[in-house]
Amino acid sequence: MELEFRNLSCGYGQRRVVDSISLRLKVGEVVGLLGANGCGKTTLIKTILGLLPVQGGEILLDGKNIKNWTSAQIARVIGYIPQMHTPPFPFEVLDVVLMGRTAHIKPFSSPSPQDVKIAERALDMLNISYLRDRVYTEISGGERQLVLIARALAQEPRILIMDEPTASLDFGNQIKVLSHVKQLAGMNIAVLMSCHFPEHAFIYSNRAVLLNEGKILHSGTPGETITAERLKTLYGIDVDIVTVKNRMNQELRVCIPSRNFTLQPMQSMERRNEYAFA
Ligand SMILES: Nc1ncnc2c1ncn2[C@@H]1O[C@H](COP(=O)(O)OP(=O)(O)OP(=O)(O)O)[C@@H](O)[C@H]1O
Q1: In testing the pocket of ligand 1, which one of 14, 43, 216 has its CB within 8 Å of the most ligand atoms?
Q2: Rounded to the nearest 10 degrees, what angle do helices 141-154 and 113-125 cross at?
Q3: Could you tell me if residue 51 is inside a domain?
Q4: Which of 16, 39, 193, 216 to mutate for ligand 1's pocket (most ligand atoms within 8 Å of CB)?
């Protein structure tokens, strides 16, 4: 399966946020989408999921325009993992994962034993079967993120879209979640993942797409795409990209800020007090 955007534009009402971008995403690939806050990553993701109307161009799945697809049709093919979320009700973990089956269950029907099996298999795949009967609101942030990945897997998608899957995770859980993401590509799933850390794209993606002011600045292998010059364009800071070796003698690239960003002087305490008591 292949997801393709052709001259895709999206935004809110009259406001254009993403302007005429073209991109192809193939099964087995992890594509890291990088860009500054507000550059349009979430807007693009919401448009792919049919949550925002397409302003221009096309979204194609295996060459077919999905313009008139229902959200259930899209959900049978595209799984979505949002940034960390807390549901309003204390569902058990298995029930959260079973929600991934919704698009496959007939209206007014309950999940079948087969659906339960698929949900349990998804938990097992991520080594979190021990969370099956726990209350979702009472597990850690990292565990919740893994449960959301299990929910997306239970959906049996061919394409998985992740909006900053490591946001608010600690260092260890970031690495665990991203390692699972990389594994998914080996299961014939295409992954599009927005991320804030170039190192994550270097280690865990096959391709990096740099989104700048609603346009693709560059797309290609992370090594040739993520350069100090382009990071300066994206984020407005000077960075050195350094190659280091880990203890297994594997080469990794890391980004080091090369000099301090010049900050505006802070307001003096007296000025702040003037405002506070005005
Ligand atoms: N509901 C909305 N209505 C109007 N404009 C919006 C809405 N949501 C977001 N925007 C604007 O669209 C632009 C892109 O926002 P978007 O959330 O896609 O950015 P992003 O790249 O995902 O940012 P971040 O990295 O901070 O999550 C921003 O200027 C934002 O203010």
Answers
A1: 43
A2: 130
A3: yes
A4: 39
Ligand 1 neighbours, Cβ below 6 Å, are 12, 15, 17, 35, 37-43
Helix, strand, coil percent content, the chain, rounded in steps of 5: 35, 30, 35
pLDDT in tens, 186-245: 888 899 999 999 999 999 999 999 999 999 999 999 999 999 999 999 999 999 999 999
Residue 215 and residue 54 in contact, taking contact as beta carbons nearer than 8 Å: no
Residues spanned by the domain of 164: 2-77+157-225
* Length of the chain in terms of residues written: 278
Q: Residue 125 is encoded by which pair of tokens? A: 């795949």
Residue listed under structure tokens 């407005």: 236
The two tokens of residue 33 are 């989408």
Q: 262 is written with which tokens?
A: 């010049």
Q: How many domains does the chain have?
A: 1
Q: How far apart are CA 24 and CA 3, in angstroms?
A: 6
Residue pair 79/160 in contact by the 8 Å Cβ criterion:
yes
